[in-house]
Amino acid sequence: AHGIGIGTTDAGDSAAGGFLTFVNHSSASIGSVKTSGASAVVYNTSSDRDRKQDERPFTAASRIIDELEIWDFEWKSEPGKRGVGVFAQDAYKVFPDAITPSKIKGDWQADYSKYVPVLIADAQESHRRLDALQALQKDVEWLRVQLAAMGIITP
């Protein structure tokens, strides 16, 4: 059975006080809520390399980011209160890992933390593209100087 431990301590990290520990059917910790010092709370989910297999580079980040629609909206339950986010039904078609669908109208949910690795991968890809463009710009500048030195173009 899945479980939750309340007011727990983590034997693997005695410096962090535990509030909640979530365990799977094997009693392995899969997440926790802990303190980080005296004034912060940390929300953790399992990400240990030892629990993963069949690793592959993630190559869909740009597509996911480009296809997600982000909306500015007003909450029906709080007139005048605005929010920014996805519509879960639409986002599910793009990146279902971040969405919990529901058969109950009005109860679809988005876990925005699932988008963080996608955003990191997209930022890394953007940095690679920028580096390539900057290198190309240097090559074009070098070529311009060479062509000007040969009198083919004016400096």
Describe this protein's structure.
Helix 1 (61-67) packs across helix 3 (116-149). 31% of the residues lie in helices and 22% in strands. The longest helix has 34 residues, at 116-149. It has 3 helices and 8 strands, in the order E-E-E-E-H-E-E-H-E-E-H. The strands form 3 sheets. It has a 4-stranded antiparallel sheet with strand order 1-2-3-4, with no helix packed on it. The protein has a two-stranded antiparallel sheet with strand order 5-6. The chain has a two-stranded antiparallel ribbon with strand order 7-8. It starts with a strand and ends in a 6-residue tail after the last helix. It has helices spanning 61-67, 88-94, 116-149; strands spanning 3-6, 18-23, 29-35, 41-45, 71-74, 82-85, 99-100, 109-110. Strand 5 (71-74) and strand 6 form a beta hairpin. By secondary structure, the chain is of the alpha+beta class.
Keywords:
155 residues, alpha+beta, 4-stranded antiparallel β-sheet, elongated
Number of strands: 8
Query: What is the beta-strand fraction?
Result: 15-25%
Shape: elongated
How many helical stretches? Answer: 3
From the alpha carbons, calculate the radius of gyration and give it in angstroms.
24 Å
Q: State the helicity in percent bands.
A: 25-40%
Distance between the termini: 75 Å
Low-confidence stretches: none
Largest sheet: 4 strands, antiparallel
Strand arrangement across the biggest beta sheet:
1-2-3-4
Overall mean pLDDT stands at 89
**N to C succession of SSEs:** EEEEHEEHEEH
What structural class results from the helix and strand content? alpha+beta
